[in-house]
Amino acid sequence: MNLVLSLTNVNEAEWIDRLRALLPNRKIESWKNGVSDPEKVDYLFAWKPDPDVFAALPNLKVIFSLGAGVDHLTSLPQLPHLPLVRIVDADLTSRMTEWVVFQTLFHHRDHLMYAAQQEASVWKDHKQPAAKEVRVGVLGLGELGLSSAKALKSLGFDVAGWSRTPKNVLGVQSFFGDSHLDDFLKRTDILINLLPSTPATQKLVNAERLALLPQSGALGGPVYINAGRGATQDEAAIDAALTSGQLKGASLDVFEVEPLPQTSPLWKHKNCIITPHVAAPSDPQALSEYVARQIKRFEQGEPLENLVDLEVGY
């Protein structure tokens, strides 16, 4: 029951050491360093893998994705129709919730304005709406979206969520399906995007949908926050909305192309917070334990958890 790792831009040695400690009776190897016996490999742990790895491992049984997102795998035509397990981990969820709450409060409490005033040595207060007056909308009510929605609700925000299917979350208004997306956007002052990247979500946040966000909300204009996937947004539309003032502000952690090119106009906006895909970094210890636990479940005949539906892409 051997395991191979194919990880791009990741310190594989750190992961291999942890997995070997957790799975001492299995051979664990790096794809890029060569696999000694490809026919005996049952598991692949992948992040933006070499597409050739699938054909080279003929008896592969399960694929694990490093991270919550799986579009780096589902977008590959070489991906075999095998069980694909995404990462759902309390540490990752907590980190994402922290980032989302921080960015929401950053805009809610007008920190950009006060930072500019500090630079100019200006002492001036501004009217502060209560959290209950601010309508937050979370696009995507999966594990990460639900955690963020609940945390924001606990702070007093008026929270709603939009998802592909109905969700029942205490205190969070549920919108679902394409027919309810416009109504969801029209009631949202701070739009938080935690959608996965699928064919149905490509550039879902575009100029037409940004224009539906209300200008008359408690913040004096809408705010857009994205820590989901860059492919779900139209960056030219975001740039235009920030330039025109249609968007009061934005916080972006993910982009269509990463690293974000230096030529991107998004860098220049003083009302746009940019972070380099760090909202929920993967913790090697926590995620290695998760993978080891799933492998042991599989070998004991128990069902794998958090399987990806390859038809919908998450």
UniProtKB/TrEMBL annotation:
The keyword Oxidoreductase applies. Pfam families: 2-Hacid_dh_C. InterPro entries: D-isomer_DH_NAD-bd (IPR006140), NAD(P)-bd_dom_sf (IPR036291). Keywords: NAD, Oxidoreductase. SUPFAM superfamilies: Formate/glycerate dehydrogenase catalytic domain-like, NAD(P)-binding Rossmann-fold domains. Residues 105-279 form the D-isomer specific 2-hydroxyacid dehydrogenase NAD-binding domain. The keyword Oxidoreductase applies. CDD domains: GDH_like_2. PANTHER family: 2-HACID_DH_C DOMAIN-CONTAINING PROTEIN, D-ISOMER SPECIFIC 2-HYDROXYACID DEHYDROGENASE NAD-BINDING DOMAIN-CONTAINING PROTEIN. This is Glyoxylate/hydroxypyruvate reductase A.
